[in-house]
Specification:
The protein is mostly helical. It is 61% helix and 1% strand. It has a domain of 255 residues. It has 14 helices and 2 strands; from the N terminus they run H-H-H-E-E-H-H-H-H-H-H-H-H-H-H-H. Strand 1 and strand 2 form a beta hairpin. Belongs to the complex I subunit 1 family.
Amino acid sequence: MFGTDPWWLILLKAVFCFAFAMLTVLFSIVWERKVVAWMQLRIGPNRHGPWGMLQSLADGIKLMLKEDIIVKRADKVVYILAPIVAAIPAFMSFAVIPFGPADNEVSIFGTRTALQLTDLPIGVLYILATASVGIYGIVLAGWSSGSTYPLLGGLRASAQMISYEIAMGLSFAAVFLYSGSMSTSAIVEAQHDRWFAVLLPVSLLIYIVAMVGETNRAPFDMPESEGDLVGGFNTEYSSIKFALFMLAEYVNMVTVSAVATTLFLGGWRAPWPISTFWEGANHGWWPMLWFTIKVQLLLFFFIWLRGTLPRVRYDQFMKLGWKVLIPVSMVWLMLVATVRAMRNENYGLRDIVLYVGGAVVGLLLISLVVDVFRDRGRKKDEAAAAAAPPEPFDPMAGGFPVPPLPGQTLPPVPRRRSRSLGEPQLVGAPDAPDNDKEADDA
């Protein structure tokens, strides 16, 4: 039923998707500053508009009126295109996000249509593709600035995308297995009885961690950490180009929240208590209200994380992605695929729990045995290293002075007697014999 709308209605729905993202961003910026101020016992913005609600609009006007500086050593074409490349793909994902049911159309200026711009058989893959393209803007911004810290920030952003896109895709695969489709509207329809957040809780948790790392938000905001990279990839940017990077970050937050709502939280469907006693909750324009509330709750989760958790180290962040999220998501996907295959073969719930639970218990026992033997070998190695005499430390072994590592000590420095002010002495040269002492002994 998509593709039959008149051109003016398609244009109107495209403008609506853009306006929804922009208005949500403007509200989220003020909301974030207000919530973080409340958590830190501050007031927050309260000057522009009622309750400071126009603060983000004032910030946007201020950034547009500031001086636009282009650094001398920058690649100017790429330097200017980078914020545009980062901002545009963030809006494209809303093309396949359903704000309402496709079969219950609403009337817009007398024309019946669905509350969705379009739908694709591989709509979720389209979302992943647009999210992956947006990272090019950050990488190109760091490279084209001609500075060291922006380059490091861009490299960090690309490493985060590679690490966490894998876990995110594996969490989506479990949803595909249960829904039987990659279409966003079909995935929402598959949750009419029970949300996938209840059926696939591990996939939801993995996606939540991955979406925070994907959007470079605290506590995973290493590409722009001011503690060690000044400002990261956007250090050399100012005025409207800097505003585009900020806009891209917040639009990405809205996008990943909308995707989480669509795939795991029932999409536009009303929450459980409301949908049971109100038949019209999922009809008409009401689904848009439930969708917006769920997106705002996920945005509050973003803000809550920023106000409570400190920034982690980059090695800890990479270890979490490669050694925790990806293995857990792969094992979880295998379990989900096994359960779906057994359900398709008409196995009973008791048999499924018995077989799958037995496999999980067996894996846990094997891992326990491996850990016991590994710890025993490690303790033996540590005891042997403690019993062995320490190796002498040579601070000039590499040709230049290096500090000692933990457990190493510098060799003792021989004591030298005081000399007269006019007598030269080379550093490290052996002490000359004491002639006066020899004369006294004679």
